[in-house]
UniProtKB/TrEMBL annotation:
CDD domains, per database record: NT_KNTase_like
Domain of life: Bacteria
This protein's name: Predicted nucleotidyltransferase
Cofactor(s) named in the record: Mg(2+)
One Pfam family in the UniProt entry: NTP_transf_2
Residue span, Polymerase nucleotidyl transferase domain: 92-171
Membrane-crossing segments per the record: none
Keywords: ATP-binding, Magnesium, Metal-binding, Nucleotide-binding, Nucleotidyltransferase, Toxin-antitoxin system, Transferase
GO MF annotation, one: ATP binding
Family membership noted in the UniProt record: Belongs to the MntA antitoxin family.
InterPro entries documented for this protein: NT_sf, Polymerase_NTP_transf_dom, Type-VII_TA_antitoxin
Amino acid sequence: MTSSPAPEPPCLIRSTYDLLTEYRDARNDEDLARLRRVLALRAMVAVGMSQRQIVDSLGITQPAVSRQLKFAPELNDVHPAALVEAAAPILTSLADEHGFTRLAVFGSVARHQAGQDSDIDLLIEAPEGTSSFGFIRFKQVMEQVLGREIDLISYGGLKPKLDDDIRREAVLL
């Protein structure tokens, strides 16, 4: 008669689960950091820096910059929520540099309901006196960084009552 192996002690099972979770979280953090580096490079290019200027500023080689830009993940293949998470510090930095404030995401990404094909909806406070051209140019910079079209609206463009849902679900980046 064979006996079945003794069950694992609960603390060992929990410990193994914690280790698996830690590993998966670390892997996700690495992917996010890699994506954030690519987005930062794209932002530098979007604001007019040459690869030479990027190389000099970062202290890395031009082939390294070129390789990162060329072999970056196809951004349309990146889930919108992951893209916004990785890009948030870069987008807020760009907004600050251009005088924009209160950058927020709304819609399906903010509600954690985004699918692979969901769009990215952003809300922003434009500096006083911003022309339509200035607003559109800033939107184009953000689209160049993200590698896809976005919906960018100004808090000033929201209609009372009609757009209250946008205000409620907006999450500052």
